[in-house]
Amino acid sequence: MEFVSGYRDEFLDFAALLFGWFRKFVAERGAAAASVDGRWQQLETQIRRLPQDPALWVLHVLPNHSVGISLGQGAEPGPGPGLGAARLLGDEPPLHLRDLSPYVSFVSLEEGEEEEEEKEEEEENVEEEGADMEKVEPEEDGEPAPVSSETPQEANPPGEPEEAEQDAGGGEDGCREDRAEDEKGPERRKGRRSEAAPLHLSCLLLVTDEHGTILGIDLLMDGAQGSAGRVSGTENLAPRAYALLCHSMTCPMGSGDPRKPRQLTVGDAQLHSPQCSAVLYCGEACLRADWQRCPDDVSHRFWCPRLAAFMERAGELATLPFTYTAEVTSETFNKEAFLASRGLTRGYWTQLSMLIPGPGTPRHPWGSTPSLSLLLGGDPYQLLQGDGPALMPPLPPDPPRGLFGSWQDYYTWRGLSLDSPVAVLLTYPLTVYYVITHLVPQSFPELNIQNKQSLKIHVVEAGKEFDLVMVFWELLVLLPHVALELQFVGDGLPPESDQQHFTLQRNGPEVSARSGPGVSARLNSGTKEKGGHRDLQIKVSARPYHLLQGPKPDLVIGFNSGFGLKDTWLSSLPRLQSLRVPAFFTESSEYGCVMDDQTMAVATGGGTSPPQPNPFRSPFRLRAGDNCMPWYCNAFIFHLVYKPPQGNGARPAPRPAPPAPTPAAPPVPARRRRGEKKLRRGARRRR
């Protein structure tokens, strides 16, 4: 079997863990099934004593209707009995991946069904033709009417009734034999099909936590080679899922001690049945309970029409100019397969994937400060590179003459092919560019932001964005005559990066970096001559935004904010209210925008502007564990609407001025007093 280059060792280790755990699970499940009363009661008692896992657990139900596994005969290609299904499923000694190469291949079940349907249609046509040949209807004069499918020699002549009867009698025995053969025929045909029938994995049950850690796996099989009498896997879905969850708690496949989830959700598109088709439920009981939940504004009865409206935006959000749009905006989009097929397995791409980077792959650890050695390499797009040709073309010789409002316009000017996936990473700097050039002038025209030569921007709750810091270099390409200072703020940033400061400077087609130990080492490289290229200064403050000290920024931006998901927003939003600076935020769904508006109202009494689709959103559709709504990174943009001063916008009534104190005598000017003293001294001298 072929694996992605650089992943062989890690993949084999993962496969060994997977099959080893599954084999143990199958053995214990069989033992529990043999003694239902005792074993399961003991297991449930053990689970009740386990500590709770604060992370959400997800039971993924992944049906498979189109792909089968053909088991071959070793070195000989094609299907055959060489490798039994029992061994593949763990009923015999463990199977190593090196053993699979000559035995296993993947086949399309849909093609097989089409071929069987064609064969059945042909057989039916042959039977109909035979029936037409046997049926001869007499006309009014008693002579048989000719049949178009028969030749004159095949029809019995009207003058030979006895021979015809004898032939019919002889044909009776022959028909019995033929019927017997016909009855055996389908069985023989089915037998031949079953010998070569592919192994069908009808459903995959997968238990993970909210971080993607695999905790358990089960394979539900339909009829397969060498497994006569095996029932459909989906018929036992509920007990198999229950057994898998129990074993995942007592013996989790991933890291960690035995534990039980505090909350569990089921990711199965077949389980949801509301009219909005937006929410997934584990069963009818949960659906009815959510529909009638109190108070009414948290019930699904209240949310159903609104969620239906959110679902209608799926087509609009999937309208993108890229050649791969249909694939990456699908509800069943396989992100890992897409990245691996394009060689996007190193650099910043590993932060979008669950794959393990291959040996020798340069990458700074998640959440740590980017190494300056990577920034000093001269190529600002080094970490955006995949295994293939360069993804970013050389810089255009001239700055943009107009403003870009879509991926299509930007890709055309930048010389990018619409097959390039760099939009997934460039969504962050292009969103900042769109806010500066389009949204701030529309919503805050009094700031005249487009004529400013320097901008100080705070990026709030910026853990992931700081890990992708070099993508913001593209802002210097789009806004070459603006000195930009980006200050990344948030308690999710690594503490060792707090107060760090470095400057990215454009030197022709290359980039250089200079660092300082803290804020005191600020590099004033933005004071170049008018018309020259500016610098991009990066600062880090690893603390919540409401604890940040420093000068007031020109603009505040947050990506995929989720105000209701973190308590610090209840303090950071009032701080923004007091600063009253333009603050723009993105969300991955329209539902998230509604939640942010409610949180803003609770925290400050203000609100948010109506969200609008971000033309520079990421093209990758995100999959949610408990709903089917269209989610994209940076999908929508809104800005904060601050509460007016004094709560209602009305100015306070003027108070009567306090009466001025009446002096006993008007003060004498100091200059006049000095003049009088001089006159007195002169008079004394004259005397």
Automatic annotation (TrEMBL):
Residues 429-621 form the Mitochondrial splicing suppressor 51-like C-terminal domain. Residues 110-143 have a biased composition (Acidic residues). PANTHER family: ZINC FINGER MYND DOMAIN-CONTAINING PROTEIN 15. This is Zinc finger MYND-type containing 15. It holds the Pfam family MSS51_C. GO terms for biological process: negative regulation of DNA-templated transcription. Residues 653-669 have a biased composition (Pro residues). It comes from the Eukaryota. Residues 71-90, 109-195, 499-533, 647-687 are annotated as: Disordered. Residues 670-687 have a biased composition (Basic residues). GO terms for molecular function: histone deacetylase binding. Residues 173-188 have a biased composition (Basic and acidic residues).
